[in-house]
Amino acid sequence: MSLLRRDPTTGRWVVFSDNASPVPVEPGPCAFCEGNEKLTPPEIVAWGRGGRKPNGPGWWVRVVPNARPLFTIEGRLERRADGMYDATSGTGAHEIVVESPEHEHSLSELSPEQVARVLRAYAQRIEDLKRDGRVRSIFIFKNQGVLAGAGRPGHAHSQVIGLPVTPKALKELLEGARTHYQLKERCVFCDILREELAIESRLIQVTDRFVSLSPYASRHPFESWILPREHAMNFESLGGADIDDLAAVLISLLRRLERVLPEPSYNLFLYSGPNHAVHPKRWPTLANDFHWHIQILPRLVHVAGFEVGSGFYANPVTPEQAAAVLRDVL
Amino acid sequence: MSLLRRDPTTGRWVVFSDNASPVPVEPGPCAFCEGNEKLTPPEIVAWGRGGRKPNGPGWWVRVVPNARPLFTIEGRLERRADGMYDATSGTGAHEIVVESPEHEHSLSELSPEQVARVLRAYAQRIEDLKRDGRVRSIFIFKNQGVLAGAGRPGHAHSQVIGLPVTPKALKELLEGARTHYQLKERCVFCDILREELAIESRLIQVTDRFVSLSPYASRHPFESWILPREHAMNFESLGGADIDDLAAVLISLLRRLERVLPEPSYNLFLYSGPNHAVHPKRWPTLANDFHWHIQILPRLVHVAGFEVGSGFYANPVTPEQAAAVLRDVL
């Protein structure tokens, strides 16, 4: 069982686990390919052809426990004082969404129908994990390429983490959104959408339901966000047609990035509302002030001391330059 | 002139500058070596033998402007609205502290006297930059090794950045310290010192004036902090004997890290109080609640999506394990 500790000076949480050390990829068959289902822990859920047997072939998208989890669903959640400090048991979830039965390397190579299935798997995992009162927030992300920290090159997959605490980066977003709402009685992300649709220079793609754009204070060259145009706190509330549109916008954005940056390393983050039912008083205006969205952060260079130590980023490419390139490249 | 932009959702600042893009190191003589003074911009200050001429040989420690600065001291500081967003001119300082006239590769190879000179240079630069009302905070750091983002391999140097805003990471520390003080009327770092000196398992070295330790929620294996035992907000208030003791503790810590991690990549961060005179009401209890310190963050692996996106770190080595190794290795 892993152990969570909180830094008392910043509120940052750290999980201590042997599984945090990277292990070399062993040669051999890919555990994520169709036909090799026995090489992963038993699946949590999968979608596929009718009549398919669990842990057998015939699936389109498959969710399995991470074989080296940072958080585990077994055991009682224990929060305790540790001298002057705070610690929590590593109770939570650490799952892998295998994005395709074939050995594709990137989400962008999949069909729109397949990407929509992956997004539906995300929504189902969030809904399911929110039923667990020990889970305070769910973080879904994807590491693509070595510079983005992808440990297992090869088969396209995402990670779902269910946490017994609200991680610092999500908390900052939630608090930033709440502060803006308290000041203006408007959602900061809705304000961003209005501003960007009016100015246009940072837009990448606009559909009826979604906007992809280069954010005003992009941390790295070609950082890109996808926001739903209609205000919604939770990703999992998306309807079927919304999901289909989002899949098309996401594939388009990844293909644009791949045209501009050959074999790009990037992280994809899905920021959606925390498990509100567990903690309703902590975020009383959440439904009004938070707006789920996707951030894609290309990783071109190693993040240096200045960024890590100050939280201040340095970027040689303005979002206006980046958006102009990404708009026209497809 | 570079441009600063603030992310409205998190308060994170980003500096946009052509100088943010890495450039390949050109072959040729080292601009930081004694005798090559003409290869850097004219020096800001240097310490050396009596009768030495500026920008000539005979120095022990030399401070020069960064040839590719992210912030520049020239020009009026302009803070302005940019539609719904906030922007600031890139007014500030970006300096290099050349740590030795010889082409040494690491601070740990220098004599205690020489490291003390480097630390005195830090203090002088902070004092000098605090006289500039445009500078809100000063961040001093060192990148050692490729994984830490060191752009220029070779000659040991640190960077001094004077900023027209308080960067997010320092702000988090200041706010965390203030929150603790408001609750307990005690400095959180003084509390940490008392706790760690009592428990002992996370201590690396203890002298009359300083403690080096593995922090409770270490982000990476062998993260290490050096704290002054006596409460002090500002690094630059250190006396001469304190500086000599700190130099010895710092060299000892770096040598311990080098024994455990061959050719380690690490970042060194000096967190000291902001330019309080510029903004006294923003941090009314600063002198009581903030405690300067040094953080050394070894960089063993690439920081992956989970850390970047969630602000949650995963670490396979507990600080108790790390401190036991570092204590006994010298």
List the helices and strands and how they pair.
Two copies of one chain form a homodimer.
Chain A (H helix, E strand, L loop, with lengths): L2 E4 L6 E4 L28 E4 L10 E7 L13 E4 L2 E5 L3 E6 L13 H19 L6 E8 L12 E7 L4 H17 L3 H12 L3 E4 L3 E4 L10 E5 L11 H21 L5 E6 L14 H4 L3 E6 L6 H6 L2 E3 L3 H10 L2
Antiparallel strand pairs in A: 1-2, 1-6, 3-4, 4-7, 5-6, 7-9, 8-9, 8-13, 10-11, 11-12, 12-14, 13-14
Helix content of chain A: 25-40%
CATH homologous superfamily designation of chain A: HIT-like
> Can you tell me the CATH topology of chain A?
HIT family, subunit A
Taking the alpha carbons of the first and last residues of chain A, their distance comes to 47 Å
- Globally, the shape of chain A reads globular
Low-confidence stretches of chain A: none
Number of strands of chain A: 15
Radius of gyration of chain A: 20 Å
CATH class of chain A, named Alpha Beta
In CATH terms, what is the architecture of chain A?
2-Layer Sandwich
Biggest interface, chains and residue tallies: A-B, 80 and 80 residues
- Overall mean pLDDT of chain A stands at 94
- Major sheet of chain A: order of its strands? 3-4-7-9-8-13-14-12-11-10
Largest sheet of chain A: 10 strands, antiparallel
Strand % of chain A is 15-25%
Give me the number of helical elements of chain A: 7
Q: By helix and strand content of chain A, what is the structural category?
A: alpha+beta
SSE topology string of chain A: EEEEEEEHEEHHEEEHEHEHEH
- How many separate structural domains of chain A? 1
